[in-house]
Amino acid sequence: MDLFEAGSEEAKFFATIPDAAATSGGSCVVVTPVRKEDVPQPIVPDASTLQEAKGNASSGPDTHDKKERQKRAAKDIDTPPKVKKMKLSDTHQSTYRKYIGHIRKVRPQKKGVPPKPFVHIGNFFVPYKNFQAVFKPRQYMDNQVMSLYVEKFNIENQLQASKNKRSRKKFAFSVRMTSELIKDPAKFQTKDVIGEFKIACEKYKISKMDLLWFPIVHEKHWATCCINLLHSQINSFDSIKPSKKGGSMESAMNNLITNFDVLAKETQALSVDITKFKHGGPTDYPQQPNPFDCGFFAILYMEKFDGKVMENFDENGIPYFRMILATDLITHPMNTEDYAKIFEEETYE
Prior knowledge:
The chain is α/β, with parallel strands linked by helices. It is 38% helix and 11% strand. It has 12 helices and 9 strands.
């Protein structure tokens, strides 16, 4: 049986996949099915590499750190690179169809019994029912899946930075912490986030980062804010740009900067005053063409922005990205769950 009903928008969309390789011209992403062995594999951390990457806490960047940051900034380009082909492998398609697009029924959750994790990376996990609900076509991102992605994002960026000193150093704070930071400054209390913040400082050395990311969900809409230590800027990315300045999302981001500055000064975590950073960065970047893809756009902004330029990506390619991200999370080498077994236990014909 096909994944989608005949004649539906999704069926028409996925029917284009085999012919997409013949497409040329324009800015559209070309989706080219590739062999499994051609797909770049995620970085698999070994214990020694991960331990080396952790290091010790630092209260601020020293002269060497500043010079290294300047070297990374010197690599900036002024124009976005051309849209790259998004490779959708057989593994992406088969994994998505098996675990997300199937016709099996999901068993109801028993009262008093906590749901079993389906994907568990680091300190975050998502039960199967929640995971499937997010990655179905035209569904919304939720806090659990975004938190899981942030954990994956931080682990992989930490490992990448430990292997290549010239790569951008990125760190994303959790959804829970960001939700506290966007509160009215009159109601914000550092005690509600200081524990998580200190762990981030010790484990990831945030004072030496180039880009500090905050995934924001406000009034059921996702956006991202970036404290750009590389260029002393505040960058914000919203996939639905407000019609006028001073909207509620802008207010939430302003609250975030004010509250984070209080937190950073109280803990002496940064050697710079972020309240003096200018609001800047690219203003022409991809926008969502529908009301339900904002969470996936927020993720792509975090992945594609290098501190100065936002790499182009196709606004209409999110259905492909859902398949890729779902597969990458399920099959991630640090997913500690037996996802195939959990799937069989949580679903039935």
